[in-house]
């Protein structure tokens, strides 16, 4: 694509392929609606960004005739006037091209524009079309607000997970390293079995925090170099519930609690704390269970030497269908050796 050079001090359109992407969400639907309802050839949502406050990045586009995203035409006077004046405008471009643009306003700040253009218009943009354009731009602005709120919520979520993971690190350096390794492997396994992107994020968070409840386990049990007796096991088996209770108290992490509490359930129903079985166990918990076991086996423990990768995978395969989800074990076998 050709870059459109702007005059010094003016907004420029970032045209490199890495900067132009079609958004599958609300902004993309707005572009599609704008193109069809306003009866134009193309509609594009442009946002300030791309590392420079003065640049514009195309985040959604719809063209009546399909095909690749076109180069934006030189000058884009309507876009520049909408950015500068904060109002919908229409302009005639070179040849017979006609364009119109409306600003995307968030808290009084112009965050971008919704731009329309027609290659061979039969008539200029009417006041009704500009009013429709303004309403569609308002819809796009609302989508930006919601996106900002989601981003803020994700930052809170990241902070909460990091804070709790740090608490585990401080208590037990082994557990901290283990949790990171389980989180990384769990995400790869989740990708392998086709989990959605949003679910992958929750999976990795839950995997990082699966041992949080061990903060409540006495050192005499947690660091014991030999086998645990029955009473000690009764205490240890409470750590999923304790971890879930701590996680549930952090705003935004409530969903993670349901995944952490189930990470010691077994495929055959003989696990704890609730005796869930098969697909009654959350998928993320099934992934964490297998990844947790694998990483534990290949890591040195106070009471034993580590197994080799092949030895640990053989143990997982032997327990597939009883302790672990067979499909998850198959994915771990692939990811553990790559």
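^ structure tokens above, recovered residues below v
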């Amino acid at each position: 694509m050709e870059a459109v050079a702007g005059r010094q001090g003016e907004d420029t359109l970032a045209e490199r392929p890495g900067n132009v992407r079609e958004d599958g969400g609300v902004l993309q639907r707005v572009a599609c609606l704008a193109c069809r309802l306003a009866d134009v050839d193309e509609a594009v949502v442009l946002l300030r960004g791309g590392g420079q406050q003065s640049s514009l990045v195309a985040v959604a586009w719809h063209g009546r005739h399909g095909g690749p995203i076109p180069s934006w035409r030189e000058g884009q006077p309507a876009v520049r006037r909408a950015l500068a004046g904060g109002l919908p405008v229409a302009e005639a471009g070179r040849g017979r091209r006609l364009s119109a643009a409306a600003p995307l306003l968030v808290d009084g700040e112009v965050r971008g524009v919704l731009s329309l253009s027609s290659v061979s218009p039969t008539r200029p943009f009417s006041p009704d079309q500009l009013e429709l354009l303004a309403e569609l731009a308002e819809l796009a602005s609302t989508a930006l607000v919601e996106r900002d709120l989601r981003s803020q919520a994700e930052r809170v979520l990241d902070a909460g997970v990091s804070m709790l993971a740090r608490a585990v690190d401080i208590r037990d350096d082994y557990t901290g390293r283990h949790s990171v390794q389980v989180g990384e492997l769990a995400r790869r396994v989740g990708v392998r079995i086709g989990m959605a992107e949003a679910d992958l994020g929750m999976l990795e968070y839950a995997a990082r925090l699966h041992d949080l409840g061990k903060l409540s386990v006495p050192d005499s049990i947690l660091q014991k170099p030999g086998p645990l007796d029955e009473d000690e096991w009764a205490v240890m088996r409470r750590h999923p519930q304790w971890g879930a209770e701590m996680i549930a108290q952090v705003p935004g992490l409530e969903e993670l609690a349901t995944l952490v509490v189930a990470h010691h359930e077994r495929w055959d129903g003989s696990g704890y704390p609730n005796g869930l079985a098969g697909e009654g166990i959350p998928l993320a918990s099934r992934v964490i269970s297998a990844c947790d076991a694998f990483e534990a086996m290949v890591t040195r423990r106070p009471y034993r030497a580590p197994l080799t990768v092949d030895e640990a995978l053989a143990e997982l395969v032997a327990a597939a269908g009883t302790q672990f989800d067979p499909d998850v074990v198959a994915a771990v076998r692939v990811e553990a050796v790559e």
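Residues 1-24, 71-75 have pLDDT under 50 and may be disordered.
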